């Protein structure tokens, strides 16, 4: 049998290439996920370990803050060789070319003979007061060179001029690193000297546990770590996100591998069906059922092992390429080199091989059930109906109904886990009904081309439904990918729409710009309007009124222009003469109810308005006409701004903060920063999810092309007979293209429909508890149409090679084939 297995692999290698490609893609994706996760985790471990070299014990605030007496108590311990006090100051710095200062963290230098500390990549570390060393990224961003002078200021408006004497190596730091200065300088900047941490190195002969125990006795109420435990604590703080990301990548890898299994199972089913006579001949010459079964599994094992090994190599290569490209972008992360562990190599290899063998078990068992003499006779196409098929259909309907009930329950009760279970169960039901559902949809969709496309189109529709089980298996792989992509697009679009409506309620104005006791220049409105990303600018006038011990700010805005900057239409409708919009705290403080009269008094002027509660605006917002009655001389004190949704929020905020250079203090607030950050997250999630799920779609399309290729081999004599009866090569290629297109469109249409259902129910389960049931459902029409078009085009492309192979066969020669 060993010779038979090897000769069979050589003879049928071309038919297994697509299955091998599916395994390579699935295993390669899994290897990519595991190796990137291993490299990131190892890089973080190594970086944090280097930055804490020499640290044997760390003291951190817990029930109380670290005080000077705690530092003194630790320094007196005989087990301590070196004690480092992590102190710092949070200052404002005036960078060259900027109108207003920004914030800079400055930490105190310490003795680095025992414990690792900052190092200068250029210049030197500060050794006297009013000298500073900046992180390399900070210096590069703000174009600061050695010897530059910087203006620092504290919260109480004390100012210092410092000299930049060094550039710090921050290549191994996470995020924005702190500048450093001498301990004397930090004491000048921040006399209170807030202590972040105490780091201690042990005397020779003292282990970390003994030192930590001694430190813990003299600093009650503080958290004490050993050096190793502190590194683990820091690593977990960074790797939790890495682990979540690794889990997401792993989930997509499992999906890709599952789709690959469907392609493999379908491929082996077709190949074994084509080799029925060959296997029957083996049975006739003495091979037992067990030997035939074992030979098929042996072939699957060899194919799986070789393809998985290639997939591991491809995955490792892609990991190395991806990590190399990540160094080209400023992600404020230390450089991560490729690190491979046993799991990232052998787990994908093992899973790919085992998955291939498992996918081949059912086709192998089916091959052993055919009697030798019966198999030597010409076989009819498989019957569409059987006892097993009827049971499967009944089982599918039960699963579909049960899963649908769970989905409805999850949407009503906001139980995500129930929704996931319902989605999985109902989708399994859809797959079980595939042999009934898919052919029916193919006939329905193929009615028009069959009527208008002539004989080739009618034959294509008949061929597509000739073997319902095979057609269902072929489309199921593509159906999974399209469903997941559609689900992701619909879910993210619905969550984004829900978030936008919620943000419109909490932050109805993108940005507010105000001054305090300063007169705005006459060109202020135009200066703000000229900022890239700002679409509308509406001036506001304010007046302060005193109520008991509280001072309330009353804001007046032009009613006609308010709608251009307030995103909440309900608030715009409420803002009218005679009405005051009050936020909830102000309503509660003034003990007002909805619709009650509120009398406002300022500088001898009085106005009585109807109070209405409105969230997200100023404490009291009224029309400019009413404010004119209350404060006729009120000048413009600020502006409400609307921004372009496609603009970069942080860049717009930075530009607004640096605008109006004649104003010393400019207060900029609003929900644009939060809205922009979440929008970017949604965009990244959508791109990543669609990109990752695209791998499963690619594998599925490989399966479509493979099925067509093998069906071409099955129908060689049939195609030759059609050619002999007058069918041209072009018509033959068109016939296969229509067949492939029908399967792709059915999978895309059904997948988009399921994606809508799952996306909406998932959004309801996820968001209803957070939005008081006010969930917004979205249909990303452009994306869904794009998905359908991509599936259609890919289906046509999948038919190109099989069609070329079929068209090249000469009719006379093909009629003579067995």
Automatic annotation (TrEMBL):
Keyword entries, A-Z: Cell membrane, Membrane, Transmembrane, Transmembrane helix
Ranges for domain MacB-like periplasmic core: 19-216
Localization of this protein: Cell membrane
Membrane protein topology class: Multi-pass membrane protein
Membrane-spanning residues: 248-272, 292-325, 345-364, 393-414, 420-442, 476-495, 684-713, 734-758, 778-801
A Pfam family this chain is assigned to: MacB_PCD
Protein name stated in the entry: FtsX-like permease family protein
Annotated source species: Kribbella lupini
